[in-house]
Amino acid sequence: MKPIKKITCIGAGYVGGPTMAVIAQKNPNIQVTVVDLNRARIAAWNDHDLNNLPVYEPGLDAVVNEARGRNLFFSTEVEKAIDEADMIFISVNTPTKTYGKGKGQAADLKFIELCARQIAAVAKEDKIVVEKSTLPVRTAEALKSILDNTGNGVNFQILSNPEFLAEGTAVTDLHNPDRVLIGGEDEQAIEALVQVYEAWVPRERILTTNLWSSELSKLVANAFLAQRVSSINAISELCEVTGANVDEVARAIGQDSRIGPKFLKASVGFGGSCFQKDILNLVYIARTYNLHAVADYWEQVIIMNDHQKTRFAEKIIQTMYNTVNGKHIAFLGWAFKKDTNDTRESAAIYVADHLLDEEAHVVVYDPKVSAEQIYKDLDYLGTRSPEDNRRLIKVVDNPYEALDAAHAVAVLTEWDEFKGYDWAKIKEGMKRPSFVFDGRKLLDRKELNRLGFAYYAIGE
Ligand code: NAD
Ligand code: UDX
Description:
The protein is α/β, with parallel strands linked by helices. 45% of the residues lie in helices and 13% in strands. Nicotinamide-adenine-dinucleotide binds next to helix 5. The active site is at 274 (nucleophile). This is UDP-glucose 6-dehydrogenase.
């Protein structure tokens, strides 16, 4: 097979953008074009001011700056880019279905199918199609069927190449991945993709498997990671009633090399666009095969996570004398984790929703999330009217403004900057007693107690 000269990626989101930027950076001889239907998003990727890129990731601006215009292009001309490419990555969103069969669990594959149909309609020469999106096991079969039934004689090879980057560390994860996984049937196609990654990833970290193992491994990796978070969060509740400290327990068990120290940070609950979606999908797939014990087992990871979010909101209400009506609660953070502007499934949304139900007055500060996004997240839940959301929640771009005259502070995201605030000054401006509810175990309990705060942290 001839080496790949032109790559097109459909989908310029949190995965397509950073992944292709790094592929282009490391393969200056390959022309990489990232296309999307969303014009505003493409315009933002092309913005001269690198602060306006649509995805905030530490280090991403430098990578884009190096490759953009050289061999990295962002465009809305989907058909042209499909036509020209030797290899096409599909990196569109695969959200949980909100309608019909599998509603609330199965992955919605309508965007994937649209891509396949578009590739089938446009392609005039043989192409390698790479599944970069996270997909249910055996999706490649459906893709192949759509692509092969076009009747124009073009030969498509399908590969599965799931992405394991985490948001907030996408660039370092892409530069130095634990592994790259490639599933496929055709040796030559696999080798062509291996060569793209070999430009910077050591060969022994590039794993090749059959298609189905690759598709399934992505769901399983996320399920295992999320399960660890739910496991430690379950223990955090037990710690609170027994006098144990969840960080100490995590350290004690994490030193066992069989358990390992990562993903044992108790929190207000995991968020993000992947964990919940992918586990629900795994549960759905297991149920489709009538494997109910398997489905129930993994579903518990989600149930525990929902419990943790509710429990945190309830703790706030209960501690504040069982009413937050009219009380000013400052939220530090809205993103689902630090170092990203992504808010999908962020625990903050659900905690806020719970407190708004009790007529609390929430004031939010997040270093990277816009007011528009915060209102969009709440409106999407449909719990109350957009007018009520805007009446009850205020978004500010100065943390001290959020905290001034607050009855309580809730830490929802572990942004580093929160640790460095002038907590003595904040205490001065707050109502008394001054409550801090630390959903990320970020702040210094001793110091806050010394300053006179009533400090509550998960798992202590
Ligand atoms: P995203 O929503 O940020 O981006 C998807 C983009 O695809 C959107 O900009 C959308 O406009 C575009 N799109 C949809 N249909 C299109 C079409 N027919 N033609 C052109 N563009 C189209 O999603 P994301 O977070 O980048 O996730 C993409 C996939 O990667 C998902 O399957 C997800 O599960 C998986 N994934 C995500 C992460 C993550 O951290 N976000 C990590 C690993 C894997
Ligand atoms: C995850 C996977 O880590 C990544 O491999 C996959 O490609 C996409 O899904 P992401 O969701 O971006 O990445 O971030 P991650 O670091 O996994 O965090 C997910 C959520 O779990 C966040 O809300 C985070 O705050 C939370 N978390 C993580 C904890 O509460 N405790 C931990 O110990 C780790």
